[in-house]
Amino acid sequence: MKTTLNLLLASSVCTALASFASAVESPPAKAKVLLIGKQPDHPYGSHMYLHTCRMLAECLRLNALEAVVSEGWPEDRAKLKDVKTIVIYTSPAAELLLDGPHRDEVDQLMKQGVGLVTIHWASSVQMENLARLGDRWMSYLGGTWVSNVGLSTDTSELTQLDPKHAICRGWSNYELHDEYYLNPTVTERAKPLLQVTTKGQDVTVGWATERPDGGRAYGTTLGHFYENFQREPFRRTIVNAILWTAHVEVPDDGARVNVSDEILMLPPEPKQK
Hints:
Blueprint: H1 2-25, E1 32-37, H2 49-62, E2 66-71, E3 83-88, H3 93-98, H4 103-111, E4 115-119, E5 124-126, H5 130-141, E6 143-147, E7 151-160, E8 174-181, E9 185-186, E10 191-198, E11 201-210, E12 216-220, H6 226-229, H7 232-245, H8 261-264
Parallel strand pairs: 1-2, 1-3, 3-4, 4-12, 5-6
Antiparallel strand pairs: 6-9, 7-8, 7-10, 10-11, 11-12
């Protein structure tokens, strides 16, 4: 009888140890983020799309997220597998997402609750495509800027409109020099988060929305000059937004963004031909 009990006890201990070992060997899957950029289309030091995406990917890895960078919409479907949020820093993303052969694929991802973050020009739609793409585009993002309806390169205090929002954690108002997009459209469902004052008017430059499908989106029209991404509070705002749209808890003091100077540094300026 004692031998049988000992055997049962030993078996139970082995099973518990095996379960513990399995848990240690198999940590929870990381949230996966896809960052989409493209080659520069503006003067050096501005619209540094791919370089910025790679830098943000390093920030995300500091926060235990998986980050994948793609030039344009990924041809390799593996990059889309299990993605929790998509970050786009390109020319107008309405056309990138809705005027390509992957339009239905994008729509399916949004219906599945995948998050969306757009930076600067990517937060827009071309004027000539507004009637055709605008409604669907804004159903994803919660707002848009119509390119190119009003620009102002200026210095303003960047003001938090909702300091308690997760995207505003770990930073406070500061002075920012950027190219501001005037007259953005923000839908009733979206929440304006960031504001500047330029040309005598208050301008929303960042908004967040929670879609009926469960997905979250953040659009910002900031990000023209790469030097702003080299500033810690600016990076933190973007990375906070990525975490929030991926349904990852944003730390009380904000996301980690303390990447090395080497990662923050721009590559050498290409020589003019």
